[in-house]
Write a structure and sequence with these properties.
Length: 528
């Protein structure tokens, strides 16, 4: 009996030792996730903040990020870090809005605050801990005027989570009829955890392996010595996990409060998500672990379209990522790689049927009506112009040709009323067919687009020759002289007046909605 027990223990221990390292690591993380406080209860960062971050742009010439001034020569607020300072409305003069111009801080301009030109988007390091600051700002109001406001803050310590966020867009397909767009993208959310976190120590315990050093034995499974770490004589292993499996551990989930705004549908069949966990050492040989969630997916997002200038329209596409946690405790900050990939996406210009004119990554703030707190957000704004060639060459020009054919009937002798009416009625039916083609791709709008106006005027001008033919036939039988005069005006002003009205329609619509008219017709805008 004793032998059987010994054999069983040997077999169990042997199988336990042969358990894959990633499974051992996972089990340890799972066990630690049941303890309190667990890793998910800890804040990732802690640091000083006066409450604002400055705007920065990528300099293509220097290939570097630079803190920039706006056209008025001021640095601007790109992000508000404290909920107590964040304003959502222009009329809230006791708080700070994203986009406010910074006149001075404690009586000094931003240039005067920087030491030796060491410019950073985060200026908190230039103030002492708990130092009071007075921020003087200029805000552009909805009426175009500017108002100077003064906000009091302090350089206090804040603690929060802020995963390293990357968003890479693969393609976008606009659907104006449904008021949505489909976007294929890859997102990554990473947290770099020091040895305060159990998961870091677990990763180093199971996923760091000493190398086979000459003269040493039994190295397998051993953690490298301090000297071996210093000499880089070790192996690091990475473990992948499914999304469902990893979230069951109750440990660090970098994206756990993040949501896509206006999400209609996520195609689970196209979704490929997983976690990667790997240990590493920093330059001081301190223990760290990288926890990354990678998600390749396809989303359908609700979007507002203004189609008044269709088919010469300009649209704004907005993709917003926000945190459901309060702004003070969870911040959304995209990496510089996201900025660079957006610039590359703009260069590739691969939105079918559209030209990308502008692309920008901006911070934002979100709040639901029923909530008492604000939420941090980041949004990607893409301005696109419709490629109008299809509509010009396949719809508008054929419509004009149909109208030319329709009006050519007035050169037929008024006595031949049957021939005239045959031509005009066939043209009218052709226009109706074109209208069905356009309507199949367009939503049911409460306003008229440029194309609607063109078709409506075309209907009228296709119907006019019918009445003209009847009336000319009537005159030619009773007053030939008057009929000839009447026919002369028809031939001289009929078709030119149609073309003139079409041109005026484009000008008036472009002038009334210049921000929604593409580059082809913005020159006709009468507004700045």
């Amino acid at each position: 009996m004793t032998r059987i027990i010994i054999l069983f223990l040997v077999f169990f221990i042997s199988n336990a030792n042969s358990m894959p390292r990633c499974d051992k690591f996972y089990q340890q993380v799972y066990d630690h996730g049941r303890e309190y406080p667990s890793d998910e209860d800890l804040f990732l960062y802690s640091g000083l903040s006066i409450g604002i971050i400055l705007d920065q742009k990528w300099n293509l010439d220097n290939e570097a990020w630079e803190i920039v001034k706006n056209n008025n020569g001021y640095f601007t607020v790109a992000k508000v870090e404290k909920e107590s300072l964040a304003a959502l409305k222009h009329e809230d003069f006791n708080k700070i809005m994203i986009g406010d111009e910074i006149v001075s801080i404690n009586g000094k301009t931003i240039d005067q605050i920087y030491y030796k030109g060491d410019k950073s988007d985060n200026i908190d390091s230039f103030f002492k801990k708990d130092e009071k600051v007075e921020i003087k700002l200029l805000r552009k109001l909805n009426n175009g005027l500017k108002k100077e406001i003064t906000i009091s803050s302090s350089n206090e310590e804040i603690s929060y989570n802020e995963p390293f966020t990357e968003i890479y867009i693969n393609y976008i397909d606009l659907n104006e009829k449904n008021g949505t767009y489909e976007i294929s993208l890859k997102s990554q959310f990473s947290e770099y955890l020091n040895d305060r976190f159990s998961i870091t120590n677990d990763a180093h315990k199971f996923l760091v392996q000493a190398l086979d050093i000459e003269g040493e034995t039994n190295f397998y499974g051993k953690y490298p010595s301090a000297e071996a770490i210093k000499d880089l004589k070790y192996d690091l292993f990475e473990c992948p996990f499914s999304e469902e499996k990893w979230t069951n551990t109750n440990t660090r989930v970098p994206y756990y409060t993040l949501r896509w705004d206006n999400l209609v549908f996520e195609d689970k069949n196209k979704k490929k998500a997983k976690y990667f966990v790997s240990p590493y050492f920093d330059e001081n040989n301190k223990k760290w672990a990288d926890v990354t969630f990678e998600n390749n997916t396809s989303l359908i997002i609700k979007n507002d379209y203004n189609l008044k200038s269709f088919p010469f329209d300009r649209q704004n596409i907005t993709l917003k990522l926000y945190s459901e946690a309060p702004l003070d405790y969870f911040k959304v900050s995209p990496s510089n790689y996201t900025h660079l990939r957006l610039l590359e996406f703009k260069k590739e210009n691969n939105i079918e049927g559209w030209d990308i004119k502008k692309i920008a990554l901006e911070y934002d703030i979100k709040k639901y009506p029923e909530q008492s707190y604000l939420m941090d957000a980041v949004k990607i704004n893409i301005t696109v112009d419709r490629k109008s060639g299809y509509y010009i060459f396949k719809i508008i020009i054929p419509i004009i040709l149909i109208l030319m054919i329709c009006w050519s009937s007035i050169w037929i002798n008024p006595k031949e009323i049957e021939s005239r009416l045959t031509i005009t009625i066939v043209c009218l039916l052709s226009l109706i067919a074109y209208n069905f083609v356009i309507d199949s791709d367009m939503p049911k709008l409460e306003y008229l687009t440029i194309m609607d106006y063109i078709i409506l005027i075309s209907y009228i001008y296709a119907a006019i020759p019918n009445f003209i033919s009847v009336y000319s036939h009537y005159l030619i039988l009773r007053n030939k002289k008057k009929a000839i005069k009447y026919e002369f005006y028809e031939k001289k002003y009929g078709l030119p007046s149609y073309l003139l009205i079409i041109f005026l329609i484009v000008i008036i619509n472009a002038s009334n909605a210049p921000e929604n008219t593409n580059a082809m017709f913005t020159w006709v805008s009468m507004k700045n």
